Amino acid sequence: MKHFALTGHPLGHSVSPQIHARLFALSGREDCRYELLDLPPEELAGRFGELKILDGFNVTIPHKQAIIPLLDRLDETAERYGAVNTVRRDQEIRTGYNTDVIGFLRSIQTLDVPLKGSRVLVLGYGGAGRMMALEAAHQGAHTVTVAARQKSLTGAGALAEEIASRYPGCNAVCADLAAVQGKYDLICNSTPVGMYPHGEASPLPDGVCCGSTALFDAIYNPDETLLMRQAQQAGLRVTGGMTMLVWQAAAAHEIWYGAQFAPEAIQAIIREMEALIAAEFQPK
Prior knowledge:
Helix content: 25-40%
CATH architecture of the largest domain: 3-Layer(aba) Sandwich
Strand order of the largest sheet: 2-1-3-5-6-4
Structural class: alpha/beta
CATH class of the largest domain: Alpha Beta
Number of helices: 9
CATH superfamily of the largest domain: NAD(P)-binding Rossmann-like Domain
Low-confidence stretches: none
Distance between the termini: 39 Å
């Protein structure tokens, strides 16, 4: 039996075990088990031994950056974004990867918004937000605005400076989340604001989306956030986080044991998981 897991905190409403069970079934890997290992930040280093014995594992908030010093190697993707969400074990070597970017790009494809030459607003600058902002610049975005709360503007500014340094052709700036304005080709929410059970919250004031083109909200529970509804009412094309979640999981299986999945099979899992979220977590 091979053992895999997801670590992060909190993990109470994760659908990752169901996603990975479907992916193992599609691969004919009945010898694999996937579970949750909820580790508070202060316990990550001390309990890393529980992760070391696994054949591979996924990492979610708040550990995507904190896990890095505990690993032996980083793949190019993890080095580029400074965040890890997938770890593979080869004997005693544990290598960190970032497959979130694959899920992110798949999600953006559904919105039909080319990143090259675009104006992108990223809400938040943690592991996922950092990846989105850097990837937008890497893909040739004209402008990347990193928005954060007033007390966190120093971190957002540091990311904007890093983007400007690494991608001189990109105009990278930071902004106060409460005072964001302007028109964007793509708005990306990487913050947890609006996540179940706080679906009444939005990271942006009402009306800010007006004049923009598309919104990607990385939250997958609920399947439609208040921010997504605000954007739809303003005429934006929108997509939630389930596409990203399932595609990054599929990419992890490719890293772990070379699995390959047909796009239509992944799309079927996305629909299944969206239905599961709607049935289990939405108001009746």
